[in-house]
Fold these 3 entries.
Entry 1:
Amino acid sequence: MTDLLDSDVDATPSRLGEVRPLLELQSLSVAIDVGGVEQPILRDVSLSILPGEALGLVGESGSGKSMTAKAIDRLLPDGARQSGTILFDGQDVSALSGAALRSYRSDVAMIFQDPRVAINPVRSIGDFMTEIMVGNRRMRPRAALDSVVEMLGRVGISDGRRRLDQYPHELSGGLLQRVMIASTLLTQPRLLLADEPTTALDVSTQAEVIGILSELQQDLDLAILFITHDLELASAFCDRTAVMYGGEVLEMAASTALQDDPLHPYSAALGAARPRLNERRARLDAIPGRPLSAVEAPRDACSFAARCRHRVDECVAAHPDLRPLEGGLVRCIRAGELRAARKEVGHDAR
Amino acid sequence: MTRAEAVALEVAGLGKTYGDVVAVDDVSFSIPVGGSMALVGESGSGKTTIAKMIMGLERVGAGTVHACGRDRTNPARSLEERRRRAREVQIVFQDPYSSLDPHQTIADMLSAVVRLHHRSLSAADCRDRVAQLLDMVGLHERHGQALPRGMSGGQRQRAAIARALAAEPQIVILDESVAALDVSIQAQVLNLLADLRDRLNVTYLLISHDLAVVRQLTDTAVVMRQGVVVESGSTGQILDSPQHPYTQHLRASVPGPGWVPPRRA
């Protein structure tokens, strides 16, 4: 096993160990060509997901979280140059072709933020859902319909047969997102890439969809890469969470630890910037400046340094590595020292 | 402490139907001058329809709307009347990218609004006013020369707030105005909105589904479901001890430490 995996073992001593990760990203970097200049969009991203595990990927605009999912799903834009390795079940995903690639595409499913954009508006729900079964799987249309109705039932749509004749515009956003989820389950995937799957939904519908994903994760032993901008949602749903910024991972930790004891100043600042449900605060601790994309982030300094309240000269002298700390991984040279100071003061200084 | 407060915005028995669909049914509330009220609800609750009726973008179906003591239930009869109403109530939408003209610089946009409402203003005074507006929302003077596409999402939303303030309104409707912003930027804009309220004594009507944002920015709240008010009162009370089952359900749906998604029936 590589060093990378060993460092992940530190992140979850209780669950990893013997189990082989379902998905493993090893130093994944992606660059695209912009006007003849190669610009990075992902930088040295290493993470792993165990079978049946929910891993959160949290970040703001341009952090690279969606691009990570696209790289996994082999949906990178034309001309993108990728280095590093993506392993699925031990196989190099970039090397797959033909039948092996088709089988990979069945194993890995993706759902997007807005189901109205992702589902063909002029086809009925039944057509949309049976297409893959009849087309790729050579199933008889009637048998395909039966399994579609069963899948709709799994996501809480009990009157599935009636829904088959309906069109996307006749369904609410929450219902349509559930149709989207059901459609991805038809190929019996082992990994679900969920890119902001509840961002466009109402709060109570979001809770429903999260509940459904949670059930599917348990019932089908489905691994989920859950991409969101909402740290609290990721913490509530995911076993572990990675925080991304400027195209790289700044922190990876158990979700509860990330919420109670964030190691990277950015993770802490993100948590502190959100208004609270339980109390009104005189002022929110806003982070100055705006999030940097991978293209803008400095290559020879900490990418968050410009906005960090704990910045010292060393932070801009070299690009920090992702290092183990307190069972997690953190890309900050001051993380250990800052944490010790917080513990000494005896209160959470975020 | 108690004194009769001047009312900035008051709607009474407000209603709207589209064909057989009742979008808004008998909604009443009022906001004192300098106050801040949230209209909380999910899709189809009628909250945006209410905002449109207050703005005059949608005809009032039933009931009345008063802003700054003047009746605006019926459409404006004259250009003068329309402009006066614009000086009373302004709106900031969720997505500044679609609500800003892509071909107009921010400074041009602001000066157009300033001139519309102060037609006797000299060119120099207008420039000063635009610079003041940019400064007020935390934008640099160079942002004035930028087009919306050259700005970040947070900067665009600041520009949209500046445009609303350019008319010197007494009431600003914030229609999901911080919902599309990144977390770190959302905090900046929420702080800005709180500062502006302190400084200008402007009245806010916040339309939002985000209960944490509602807590941070408003004093009172009205919770709506399917066009009907289910609960209203002080924001703190509604969030701390929601009385209506729907409000309780909304509150329980918000993720937080130890949260378990309510299981479906």
Note: Residues 183-200 of chain B form the longest helix (18 residues).
Entry 2:
Amino acid sequence: MKRARSRTWLLWLIPLAFLLYFFYQPLLAIFRQVFSERFNQGWQFFTWSQITQPLLFTLWQAFLSTLLTLLIGLPAAWLFSRFDFPGRKGLRALSLLPFILPTVVVATAFNTLIGPRGWLNLILMDLFNLSNPPLNLLNSLPAILLAHVFYNTSIIIRMVGNSLTRLNPHYEEAARVLNASPWQAFREVSLPLLLPSILGASLLVFLFDFTSFGVVLMLGGPQYATLEVEIYTQAMSRFNLPMAGLLSVVQLAFTLLITLLQNRVSSPRYGKAALNSERKTLRRPVSRKQKAFVILMSLLLLILFVSPVISLVSRSFVTFEAARGERGEFETGFTTRYYTELFQNRTGSIFYTNPLAAIRNSLVYSVITMLVATTMGFLTAYALSRAGRFRRWLEPFFMLPLGASAVILGLGFLITFNRPPWTSGRFPILIPIAHSLVALPFVVRTILPAIQGIPNSLREVARVMGAKPWRVFYEVDLPILLRAVIVSLAFSFTISLGEFGASSFLANARTPTIPVTIFRYISQPGALNYGQALAMSTLLLITSAAGSLLIEKIRLPGEELF
Amino acid sequence: MLRVEEIYKDYDGKPLLRGITFEVGQGELVCLLGSSGSGKSTMLRIIAGLEDPKSGKVCLDGIDISQKPTHERGFGLMFQDYALFPHRSVAENIAFGLRMARLPKSEIDILVRKALESIHMQDFAARPVTELSGGEQQRVALARALAPDPRLLMLDEPLGALDHSLRTELLKDLRKRLHDSQKPVIYVTHDQEEAFALADRLLLLNDGLLVQEGAPETVFNRPANAWVASFLGLGNLVPGKIIDDGRVETALGLLELQTQSEIEIGSDCVLLLRPEDALLGEKAEQLAHHLRAIVRDSVFQGEHYRLEVLAGDTLLQVNSQYDIDPGQPLSLGWLQNALLCLPVS
């Protein structure tokens, strides 16, 4: 037993070194950048409003987004955990859709819905014979809020819905028998019992809204900059790395604060007894009020979850205007041109990014990410499960990368690895490494429960029956873990394929990824660029959906990411 | 006085309750007894207004209250899992119903203190209910149900969640408490020991119908049919056929009854042979009709040995003062007046 333990200590060192070099070093570099600037120039290198303005806006939009998300999410959670109605399972599956969509895809999808070339404007133009799009929803706060609601409603549905289903219905019934009206029973009994999960879910949604990058960058436009967008702008357009660094420090501090708060409020308060009912709480809607609620709510959710996706896919097959610079070639209607164009190599423009190269790059990066993240995640999870009393100290060290956003990671990489061999190589290994760091916490969270779920008695039985330690691992651990490993592989592959935050810092014109290319296309004028962005988004959507389907199929029931 | 009339209820499209009618008088303790899934808990939930019947009425003192919402009925219900509010203390749990009834705070305090005294848990007032033992939880749940002075108290398997030794202890306590409360009580259980110990009257529920209703002694002495005898575990049930007045054809031979059975001649019936009434050895041989059997097994049960014997092809259970080795032959029989002939259902 002693020897086995010393060997696991050796396994530690690999993810430890990886994190130290690729996560903590860049993080430190950001801090160093900020403070060396302070020593060189004093605190004069920025004005307070440069921080407070994006910070306040970030907090404000996160607050509004969370509020709106709760407004739809809470009734939706109620719908799924209390009512049985035709199509319930399908709708519930649909509500998971946002989880799997990369931010760029969501942003383009909403662009096709409410943007100047989107369906809403096209329909209005057609109806009222207008020559210009009447609604200017893009580059506005509502666009950001809408995308955030789309993204995070499912978190509320999942987390609060979970507690709702597991809440023992006898509590509310006992209150009813004890003279409480339905409203009193809810307020006095159910609500307090559900509050930890509602608060926890809200803070998680707030955290996601606070750190949201791609959606805000692509739907908010220049005047609505959150901290992350401001970090990106300062670093990539103004080349003001100290300012970007300072904003990152602020961002990190707030993220940490929200995470700590989230952990505190969502810990179960009243023992496990309150929320462990296995009872069937689903009922068919009976009264007219209930029926109306079920129909309206499911319709609303259907529109919320499905319309952006349908809008994106359908819009990628339709043309309405002449492609820029190709006078005379004017056609309206169904087209596959945006797709065929992706595979044609036109060079000449300096803005040109080769879509084929982007697809090839993304696939290669994803495969590397898949292997690196799963290996590191597996080693980390195994080490954590064996760490015993050291775990308390080591777990935050390994889980911290979840708190740091991809944008900050990208910035850190930019500052740290700005020298050979990183910059000289023809092959940009930094991108898949950044992706691996983004995927690592998810991998650990998938594999760790699987490892801990193996009862030690199974290993002991194997040992008693004469299996040597490696044999025990091979016969007991491995077959059980295989599932989790496959899920991790699919997870990290999908994450890498859709990753935008870090890639936007690290991918240059020679090494584009799919999301970065989509961003470039959609930021450039011209119907063809727009169409190609949609076509690529659709392809990315299909790949991500396939990956997630695979994950759902393999994943053991009852495993939740949040 | 509570009266339920012709209650019908479906569950998952199948009939669960098929026309249940009964009454509970002032101060009467009625036990609703039946196997699990027989719809006894649903019956309570319908009376409480937590579920609507498909048809039928619930009347209190002659007034139909079927349309009244739960919180206006003024009944008490104690759940099998107690459903003590985990986010409230012992005292707050007991005060809940009083608070909902909008009693003044001073009065609530007095009533809660009294309730705590009555269950000898004065020192537990501020404790979280999650820290109580099973027995303590049960007492608090009962105190909570009784605190708002309900017009009717219903208990759904109140001892079901406890282990056996605690059950016997709490049963005595519960019996006293319920009788002291002077309230009409409906007590749901599947355990006949509990029912016999507590009930003024038993209601036996099987397959959605009330099979028998009566005092525990009556039900014990004269079970209404074979299901009741089997559910209560009254003894050996031997299928037979009535061939003429007072004579039953069974696998054990032709048996004569003392009392005339009300069952139609020529129809099937079931004969109840209680183990404790069995005569063995010489005593049996003095009977006009006795059986020859082989002892298969003997189990010591404290006051007696429980023998399993094979008479012909029929296995029977009988009580014996002596241990008899398996394989030994044995004569046994029952006095005519100890035989009971029951309808099949």
Note: The mean pLDDT of chain B is 90.
Entry 3:
Amino acid sequence: MAFPKSDSAAILARIREALRLSAPAPSVEAPPDVQSRRRWLPKAGPDYSEQIALFSSQTEVLKAGFLRFPSLDAARQQLAAWAREEKWDRIATHSHPLTDGLLDGSEVPRFQVAPGYDKQELEKCPVGLTACEALVAQTGSVLVSAASSGGRTLSILPPHHIVIATRDQLVPDLTAAFARVRAAYGAQLPGFLSFITGPSRTGDIERILVLGAHGPKRLSIFLIE
Amino acid sequence: MSASSLFQHDAKNATANLPRRSFIRTALAGYMGKRKAAQDYFQDWQGARQAASEIKYEGVNHLDRYLEEFTRNAEARGTKIFWASNSEQARAYILELCRQKGVQSIVKSKTMTSEEIHLNEALEKEGYHVVESDLGEFIMQLRHETPYHFVLPCMHLRRDEISATFEKTLKSAPTRDPEELTAIARRFMRQEFCRADLGISGANFLVAETGMISITENEGNARLTTALPKIHVALVGIEKVLPKLEDLALFLPMLSATGTAQTLTGYNSLYGGPRQPVEIDGPEEFHVILLDNHRTRLLADPEQRDALHCIRCGACLNVCPIFKNVGGHTYGTTYQGPIGSVITPHLRGLQDWKHLSGASSLCGACTETCPVKIDLHHHLLQNRRNAVAARPVWWEKLLFQGFSFVMRRPALYRLAGKLAPLGFALRKPIGNTPLDPLRPWTATREFPAPPPRTFQEIWKDRGQNKPIV
Amino acid sequence: MKVSLFVPCFVDQFFPQAAVSMVEVLERLGHQVDYPPGQTCCGQPPFNSGYWDEARAVAERTLRVFRDAEVVVGGSGSCATMFKVFYPELFHHTPLETEAKALAAKTYEFSEFLVHKLGVTDVGARFEGKVTFHDGCHGLRELKLKQEPRKLLRQVRGLELIEMGEAETCCGFGGAFAVKFPAISTAMDEVKCNSIAETGADYVVSGDSSCLMQITGYLQRHQRPVKGLHLAEILASR
């Protein structure tokens, strides 16, 4: 048995033949460039204070937790309080200055994801803590990547996802988020990126909103300002 | 039964089901309210639509270039690209992959292309365990039904019907609580994600510039489907190209606004390759199957080529009065609603599927709502013209030739007008019986009686100074 | 101004009062109404069913009938749409293309003519009653008419205009669709009539007699008291 042959030549030939006839264009002008498209898209706010306000109101609507901390230490205290109240038996996380910093001094056992980790063990963790690429004000989103956020699974499998970010990571909109990723990685973009907008949700049952369909039921964003 | 007769039969039953119609209308009314808010959030929605249509025009009208660019960039990072001309090739590739890799369990996230190629049946026939992870798709799979709507697969079901399905197939306890029902599915699916050897997804976009696919979802099931199993296969229509990464900054919010009336859908994820050496986890293999399956036929029709701009948001279904009243299953094919009625004749045969283009009042609500400005309702008209040009219906042809003959001769037209009251009088004894030519109308509606004078007669009388009223 | 009137075939045969009212309103506003003789049909029935050759044959004749007209008022949204939107397409790449485009440019739907060409919203009408307006799809989406009929109705003395929730939803006529797919057509009709009932209006008004035929057909079968009137009939009332 063998794989069928990839039919690229035949498909490309059909495409080229089809495109010999031109279709009427929607406009005589060239498609607008990326920057000028922003004038149609939702507003993002011109400065940090407007953007943070927008991010805050968006996350509230999304039922994502957004907590601002003046210091890493304040964030540590909040984390410790939750760990006590909710009796976390461990936190799943990855190695990163921010996550390491946040968990410094914490007594909660850690499940550190590293190449070859046990999926079933990760599945049992009540909390997953990750860093991120950016926070997007326009949509209240968190941009994670395989490079910055502990791989592809850590931010989606445990039922509570906590993200830690710093103020320089807040960007106004999706366009700026892409620019930031390009600046950070150049030609070698991460093999996985995801804009996370609120906790996992579904409306499949009578259009009623239910959180925690398959991904995290709870999303908490810690911003260290 | 032909697809056309089946359609009429199902339409009759569906329109008679008043509770179901009311349920659907309520659901979609909720969508319309939220949709307006999502659209108003844009500074200039019409400007965004125009930009989106221009970008899609660029992509589709240079499809060969962008597909080659996508392939180059994807393969550079270890993605395996397979070009499938048709369903058979796509299925054969996946089956061979399963055989070679010793796959036993498969988890899927939402992909209409897999419905299109009847993949699940082929996999199950070979003994593979296949589970749909999207909640709505999962429910429909358990019910052995096809999706009702390609974005909202079980929008027609009430919670007690969903509970009954779970009770029957998963042996769960009855519940009317949506949270509990969701939790039942979540618990079941966790294990499926963990044990699956293969994850099959679709994609909303193919980003040519970076060789990445983009997947939009709310539940997180696509992220799990594509992260946990060792192999990820994405099945994607060739028309899904976007030239540049930044094009997503426009398309993702538009897809969210029109698809589910959200600012942004829960997870919009980009996949650029299998697990890279620097990555902690991820599939060892990533395959993208580029599917033609007659899309090039649509491409070859310059008048209707823009139907390939479709981003499968489902908005045209949500505003279509036909869809609202007959429901998704009546269409009898993978893609429902206005877009389905436009493209199915191209994908599956004009003469067999022209009735879908006929089953429309051409109201234009679809065209008005489409985020990429596809001229949907005019395409339905063009399909009708093309069907007639290829194979006119003999009695219709005769009828319209007669119509044209009379309408080009005012004296004949006036004579026909004079005979109308006579026709009405003669009709009385057979009125509303199968012999009555007006029966399709009069079965449910009153037909107006001819007035004492036609306008032409009134005008003539006026010219002779007889009273106008 | 000399206004040439196009009276659609079914208005001529079944709803002449709508056309009569148009004449009355236009004459009241001081214009001369011309009714070119020998006009019959715009050709929409064969056109919508895909029989464009037959449609073209009828349309060719209609083009000739209105060749010398200064300005044309189409007596329904759908026929005005046929002239303005579809004739240029029907005659694309034929010797009559220029003429078709010329007709398209000088044709107006009735409310469009009053509001945009004549710049008039108050035609001196009086009509006591609660009225709701049905937007015919051709007028609404092909000709982009929404406020025009409403501006006219708001100037009618004694008239109370109430919007229905499903004003923009298709009534289900769609020409041959109404008899080819009667179950769906009737279901759409039902939705429209229920929406009318919710307004408490006594009259449903539209710029399209074909829509009115569909709507009143259902209302009468179900013995609902609401009556249907063409916009022109309201505007002609004193």
Note: The two ends of chain B are 53 Å apart (CA to CA).
